[in-house]
């Protein structure tokens, strides 16, 4: 599979290519791809472009560790350090709420 880098054309004989996100991941956001085709006489088409928006809609997972019981007057340690976000995401904020 070809490796796409911004501004560097990739030439193939195949009309279909796969942008392998595990190999050269594009960051989330807007990306524009361009295609020019060449016929058997060497004539080139006008470019056609398509915008692709890479989304990160994979939810992070909150993991709250806390003791089941504590003595009155004892501090309670709440630990969210085992929470995760699928790569390449990262947890940047923790929102704690005493619900009841």
Question: Short summary of the structure?
Answer:
The chain has 100 residues and is mainly beta.
Notes on the protein architecture:
- With 100 residues, this protein is mainly β.
- It is built from no helices and 2 strands.
- It has strands spanning 29-35, 48-54.
- Strands 1-2 form a two-stranded antiparallel ribbon.
- It is rod-shaped and about 85 Å long.
- The termini are far apart.
Count of individual beta strands: 2
Low-confidence stretches are none
**Shape verdict:** rod-shaped
Beta fraction of the residues? 5-15%
Roughly how many Å apart are the termini?
54 Å
Mean pLDDT: 92
Gyration radius from CA atoms, angstroms: 24 Å
Reading the helices and strands in chain order gives EE
Largest β-sheet summary: 2 strands, antiparallel
Helical content band: under 10%
**Backbone structural class:** mainly beta
Helical segment tally? 0
Strand order of the largest sheet: 1-2
Quaternary state reads: single chain
């Amino acid at each position: 599979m070809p490796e796409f880098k911004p501004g560097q054309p990739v030439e193939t004989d195949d009309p279909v290519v796969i942008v392998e996100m595990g190999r050269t991941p594009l960051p989330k956001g807007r990306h524009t791809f361009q295609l020019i085709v060449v016929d058997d006489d060497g004539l080139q088409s006008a470019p056609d472009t398509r915008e692709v928006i890479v989304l990160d809609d994979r939810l992070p997972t909150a993991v709250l560790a806390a003791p089941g019981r504590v003595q009155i007057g004892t501090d309670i340690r709440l630990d969210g350090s085992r929470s995760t976000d699928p790569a390449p995401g990262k947890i940047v904020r923790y929102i704690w709420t005493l619900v009841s």
